[in-house]
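The instructor's notes for this session suggest beginning with a concrete chain rather than abstract definitions. Hand out the sequence below and ask the class to guess, before any prediction is shown, which regions might be ordered.
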Amino acid sequence: MKSYEKGISLSIWTLSWPIFIEVFLQLLVGNIDQVMMSHYSPQAVAAVANANQILNIFIMLIIVMSTATTILIAQYLGARNQSKLSEVCTVSLVLNFFFSSVAAVFFITCHEWIFTWLGIPPETMSDTSIYTTIVAAGLPIGITLQETCRIRLCIMRWLPYLEAIH
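After discussion, reveal the predicted structure:
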């Protein structure tokens, strides 16, 4: 019984450690931007920190969607269901591109309203708006490329195990 429980915990760790690293690196990007901007001005640091509050919420939503995709890919790879696997990959890429495009348009057009609602000081509003617009404009391409890499890595990682079993 103990070996069964140990196998489950090891497989959960094996599946989840890449997600933890991805979340850490995604959140680290905003912090690195803050460190780089600290050499420029305190207002720039505040602008990046304010923008990252909203952008990190979006990043977490994308990570949840990507994790669900990874689970489905692993399930269909194990079942050797190529048609469902292809469908999940296609739907995931299309949904990620669509969702990130809608989010980008929303952030570009409504960022001032959001930051006013959050109570961002007027002296940092301009810098916050510029940073948000730049990052939001790259969201659809960046998120779609990230999801493509995740799908390829997931499939390439599990194929040798599946070939060895069957």
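Then share the key points. The mean pLDDT is 81. The first helix runs from residue 2 to 37.
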